[in-house]
From TrEMBL:
Residues 135-200 form the HTH luxR-type domain. Keywords: DNA-binding, Transcription, Transcription regulation. Transmembrane segments: none annotated. This is Transcriptional regulator, LuxR family. GO terms for molecular function: DNA binding. GO terms for biological process: regulation of DNA-templated transcription. It comes from Loktanella fryxellensis.
Length: 202
């Protein structure tokens, strides 16, 4: 069995930092990890570099993995040169996309200050981002009854009111919410409802 990559592995592979936006929906990702140097984050934000960043632009238009050096000719604003000044001298961009009409995209970039990434390292990073993207895909096995209960939780209704409105016992509602929490890997009904909304299931 292959060992899964950990945050410590990522820190060793990309010692200059990394950024991941997982399952980007209409506007925001389900999860965002920004482990880039704070000084670079502040400069990037203050200078509004997102609009000019060839790494992000490539990620929204392609899938797979690419070296930053292959994007330098698409960088008229010199974003990659600026990144280099903050220690992000070598990097790769990763993009994963669901191949369907409702597809979501995950983007990541990983950086080093000392050398290019090896072929093996690039395969490991692409595999890691692809796995994280897949793991966060919305579950397809929630029942209509479970989704209905989650929708009512989202609307702020209490257990007793949900049971009354649905014409079932409180125990039945509890079971539906319990099943939904398990399927969504949520700790509470409120969290499950929020996740179902984020997945656009309700």
């Amino acid at each position: 069995m292959t060992r899964r990559m950990t945050p410590d592995d990522l820190a060793r592979l990309a010692p200059a930092g990394h950024y991941m936006a997982l399952r980007i929906g209409f506007a925001f990702p389900m999860e965002e990890v920004n482990a880039l140097p704070q000084a670079w984050i502040e400069h990037y934000t203050r200078s509004r570099l997102l609009l000019h960043d060839p790494v992000m632009r490539w990620g929204y238009a392609h899938t797979g993995i690419i070296d930053w050096t292959d994007l330098r000719h698409q960088d008229p604003q010199g974003v990659l040169a600026m990144a280099s000044a903050f220690g992000l001298r070598f990097g790769v961009a990763v993009s994963v996309f669901d191949d369907n009409a409702d597809g979501q995209r995950s983007l990541a970039n990983f950086s080093r200050g000392d050398r290019d990434f090896t072929g093996l390292e690039k395969r490991l990073l692409l595999t890691y981002v692809t796995r994280r993207h897949t793991e966060m895909a919305p579950p397809r096995n929630l029942t209509a009854a479970e989704l209905q209960a989650l929708c009512m939780v989202k609307d702020g209704m209490r257990l007793k009111q949900i049971a009354y409105d649905l014409g079932v016992t409180e125990g039945a509602v509890k079971q539906r919410l319990k099943n939904a929490k398990v399927k969504l890997h949520a700790n509470t009904s409120t969290q499950a409802a929020a996740m179902a909304r984020q997945f656009r299931l309700i």
